[in-house]
Amino acid sequence: MRFDEAYSGKVFIMSKPSYEESRAVLYGMPMDWTVSFRPGSRFGPARIREASLGLEEYSPYLDRHLEDVNYFDAGDIPLPFGNAARSLDMVEEYVDRLLADGKFPLGLGGEHLLSWPIFKAMAKKYPEMAIIHIDAHADLREEYEGEPLSHSTPIRKACELIGPQNVYSFGIRSGMREEFQYAKDAGMYMAKFEVAEPLKEILPTLANRPVYVTIDIDVLDPAHAPGTGTAEAGGITSKELLEAITAIANSDITVIGADLVEVAPAYDPTEQTQIAASKFVREMLLGWVK
User: Fold this and answer.
1) Crossing angle for the helix pair 115-125 and 154-162, nearest 10 degrees?
2) Residue 20 has what DSSP assignment?
3) Is residue 282 within 8 Å of 66, Cβ to Cβ?
4) Residue 1: what pLDDT?
5) Which domain holds residue 101?
6) Which cofactor does it need (predicted)?
7) Domain with 203 in it: what CATH number?
8) Annotated binding residue at 112?
9) Which residues of the chain have pLDDT under 70?
10) What percent of the chain has pLDDT over 70?
11) Most exposed: 85, 96, 180, 228, by fewest CB within 10 Å?
């Protein structure tokens, strides 16, 4: 069942009609209440779905077709505007339900703070899990201008939840000096600037472990994804991110869930950001839902 029985929005391409029979569930988290620069990512999930309608159903990267993946698009969680704490609780409650029902959760943001309640839900079921974090920003702050609920804090919260040695960040090219020092002192793995090659080196060390993957679209250079709230020059290409997604799919890790966040369509009239995001979601569905 969708969040709202009267849900009439577009669904991601080739979504199946039955929640009960699905293996994976795609769900939207339309929240941008805590962003520090430009809002608008709450419109990301809907536009990613719309862009998916222009995709081919077949992936030449993975030689798989979406007809082979039983997934259900549940629509967007009806998050209360401006109420970050309640919104996060609702996301955690929903992911709890998905896991109880044996589903693979694939979330669409929305801002990156939304990953925090997902981490909490996943850790309850998979206490030995690791997190792969692909992003331009370290997101290791304890607070932003006095506010602990900020999209600049989810990875610090994750480190405190499951231990920094279980958090692996890739593509990082922005953050406070203190954030980089925290990562070094805490023993957290952080690959600056690059994603695919350092990820390939790390994946064998995570073999057979449950791993959650969170991707912030701003890991891409603004030339490839201008539609995001906190764009950061010097990023990777769409090709490199596809290479990373494929590497994860072909590895021996057990992906237990994922999210893709921070698509803010208003800043990209060309729609290349949401088009790229929809392709990444297709590859995540095809490669990570076993």
Assistant:
1) 20
2) T
3) yes
4) 47
5) 24-288
6) Mn(2+)
7) 3.40.800.10
8) yes
9) 1-9
10) 97
11) 85
- Residue 6, pLDDT score: 38
Annotated ligand binding at 4? The verdict is no
Q: Which of the 8 DSSP states describes residue 273?
A: H
Q: Is 139 annotated as a binding residue?
A: yes
Termini Cα distance of the chain: 22
pLDDT at 3: 55
Number of domains in the chain: 1
Q: Tens digit of pLDDT for each residue in 156-190?
A: 999 999 999 999 999 999 999 999 999 999 999 99
Query: Computed from CA positions of residues 7, 12, 13, 18, in that sequence, does the dihedral angle turn out positive or negative?
Result: negative
What are the residues whose beta carbons fall under 8 Å from the beta carbon of 197, sequence distance 6 or more? Answer: none
Check the annotation: does 135 bind a ligand. Answer: yes
In a domain, 17, yes or no: no
- Whether pTM > 0.85 for this model: the answer is yes
Q: What is the distance between the alpha carbons of residues 155 and 235, in angstroms, rounded to a whole number?
A: 19
Residues 253 and 203: their CA atoms lie apart, in Å, by 7
**Nearest to residue 220, comparing CAs of 231, 209, 229, 211?**
231
